[in-house]
Amino acid sequence: MKDQFQSKSTSPPPTRFVLLALVLLLAAITNSVDALLHAAAPSLPHRLAIRRMATPPTTTTITGRQTLLSFLHEERAAQPTLIDDDLHLVLAAIASAVKRISHAVRRAGIVDLTGLYTTEQGGEATLNKGGEKQKKVDVLANDILKEHLEDCGQVAAFASEEEEGVIPLQTGGKFVVVLDPLDGSSNVDASIPTGTIFAVYRSLGDSPAQLQAGALQAGKHQLAAGYCLFSAATLLVLTMGRGTGTHVLTLDPHIGEFVLTTRRLQLPSRGSSYSLNEGRYEDWPQGLQSYVTDMKLGKNQSQKPYKLVYVCSLVADAHWVLIRGGMACNPRSHLRLCYEGNPMGLVRIYVSLLEGREDSCLCFCVFGSCSVFTSPLFTHPLLHWYEEMPEQNISFVLLRFIFFLTSSFLLLPLPPPLNR
Predict the structure, then answer these.
(1) pTM of the model as a whole
(2) First-last CA distance in the chain
(3) Proportion of the chain above pLDDT 90, given as a percent
């Protein structure tokens, strides 16, 4: 019995146990090798980042949309003689700034950014150069844009509706930027659309006189212009000169990037609305009163009454017209040619040029409001011309010669720059 017991205990294990042991051994070896590889190699996101750095930048996001930087590089490659090499750096800086402004505007009621800006507790509200009381978001938007333009290293100076004079930024910078940091800022307290308006010019030099002259160049010398609309979505609308068209990019909050949503914007052939402050009807010249009355009564080719759409924000009202067609104007002489008229005019012009209607629509419009700071220009001569164009898609009427053929006689001097 003892021999039999010993014989049974020393017999080889069944085949299935051997196979099981081999499987477990292979699994252990595989796990060890896999762990070693993961320890020695970057994680998947890092590996993808390294791959992107070693290859040309991707042109689309996961949604299939082209990003702003990719779009700017593409436009530069397509128009090398029209678009400066470093212009995309300035536009990217503006895009980064308006992302922050958009975030601040959306959180204004939460982080106490509503109301007027004062330099001390209980003090009087500060005024901008136009004599308007500054909102907290006005000052914040201006500071954000100044910071980003200075950091990009390509901007010699900038002029802002919220600053006195031209502000030097970078000695030897190639560009001068003019802007309205937050158009329609009075709407922020009620969460109504607002926007930023900007234009980029070539710098004329670094002396105070040259910087001031650079900010006061005629609108035809703009290298790029556009606006950002802060509304249900944050939109960046821009143009970079003749032949490039006007384009719309939308901020994708999931990736924090502007993506191209409309290439070469086209104006509808006919609109159905008009935009202006009817509360000042009695202050309008008779020609404008008659024109708007006819629109409301449907006295036009379509025989359909136009409806009123008015936000009281230049960016919002102009954008509505560019997307939906119609008419918008501002009979008061309080818009600034430098900060608002010229930039919005360039955007509007390159929508028109795309449609081959240069003669009829080459002018953007600041109807009766063509001014730098508060000085009105060419108010009454426009009214009769405006009255004779009831069937055209007009947005802020400004005669063609004012935009393209003006020189220094239209450009009133800015206040002298401050030493900063």
Answers:
(1) 0.73
(2) 108
(3) 39
